């Protein structure tokens, strides 16, 4: 089973990533809801990296690798963008305020943080790695 | 993502078919931005064939809600799959938006 994929930074590849995660997890008999949550968390991080970190530059690539060990799903997402995500700057959104001001973005990482058991971002030089963990059972 | 429109005198129904992500949500945003949308009293979103929604899709609805409210246009979702409803729930959006089980209930609002 394929456990790694490399994609260019085009938002059209979001569907490719979702299908990749879905196919990998098909062997684990997850509920629709649980599977959808994991796919969503990965999609949110990948969308941020494609759109915000790499500005949809299709000459840039993301590398994704998934494993399941002892019933814990882990995905590593690597890129080489200069503008790395800084979790320390994360703030819980005020949705009433988003609605009042008509704000479109800013809730993706909230979904990721609420869905996954652990979220890590590390940067070495310009090499960034995001790791997401979720217990499957 | 395919969006089908159906209109009556007071109601615009948009049926969403497919996956609403950071790529396809642009299409929905274009539809909801059209000024004529505010000519209706209600905009119903049929989610029966909506198989997936990410924050980008949610963001489109969040960004238009106040504009709809200011124009006295009700935005109502119906026929939502459980896994899609769950995404609204994770953020608490299910309490800020009107989501009903069926088209009959959406029409009755």
TrEMBL record, chain A:
Coiled coil: none annotated. GO terms for molecular function: ATP binding; protein serine/threonine kinase activity. Keywords: ATP-binding, Kinase, Nucleotide-binding, Serine/threonine-protein kinase, Transferase. InterPro entries: Anti-sigma-factor_SerPK, HATPase_C_sf, HATPase_dom. Pfam families: HATPase_c_2. Residues 13-133 form the Histidine kinase/HSP90-like ATPase domain. This is ATP-binding protein.
From TrEMBL, chain B:
It comes from the Bacteria. It holds the Pfam family STAS. PROSITE patterns: STAS (PS50801). CDD domains: STAS_anti-anti-sigma_factors. One of its GO terms (molecular function) is anti-sigma factor antagonist activity. Residues 1-109 form the STAS domain. Belongs to the anti-sigma-factor antagonist family. This is Anti-sigma factor antagonist. It comes from Hymenobacter elongatus.
């Amino acid at each position: 089973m394929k456990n790694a994929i490399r994609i260019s930074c085009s938002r059209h590849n979001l569907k490719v990533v979702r299908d990749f995660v879905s196919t990998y997890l098909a062997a684990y008999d997850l509920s629709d809801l649980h599977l959808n949550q994991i796919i969503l968390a990965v999609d949110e991080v990948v969308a941020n990296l494609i759109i915000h970190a790499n500005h949809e530059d299709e000459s840039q690539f993301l590398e994704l690798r998934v494993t399941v060990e002892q019933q814990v799903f882990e995905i590593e997402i690597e890129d080489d963008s200069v503008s790395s995500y800084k979790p320390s700057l994360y703030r819980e959104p005020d949705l009433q305020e988003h609605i009042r001001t008509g704000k479109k973005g800013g809730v993706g990482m909230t979904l990721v943080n609420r869905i996954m058991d652990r979220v890590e971002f590390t940067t070495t030089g310009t090499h960034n790695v995001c790791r997401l963990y979720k217990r499957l059972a | 993502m395919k969006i089908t429109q159906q209109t009556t005198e007071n109601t615009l129904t948009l049926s969403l078919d497919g996956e609403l992500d950071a790529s396809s949500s642009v299409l929905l945003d274009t539809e909801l931005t059209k000024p004529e949308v505010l000519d209706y009293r209600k905009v119903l979103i049929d989610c029966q064939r909506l198989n997936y929604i990410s924050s980008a899709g949610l963001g489109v609805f969040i960004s238009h809600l106040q504009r709809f409210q200011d124009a006295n246009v009700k935005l109502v979702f119906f026929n939502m799959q459980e896994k899609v409803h769950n995404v609204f729930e994770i953020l608490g959006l299910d309490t800020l938006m009107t989501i009903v089980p069926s088209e009959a209930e959406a029409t009755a609002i």
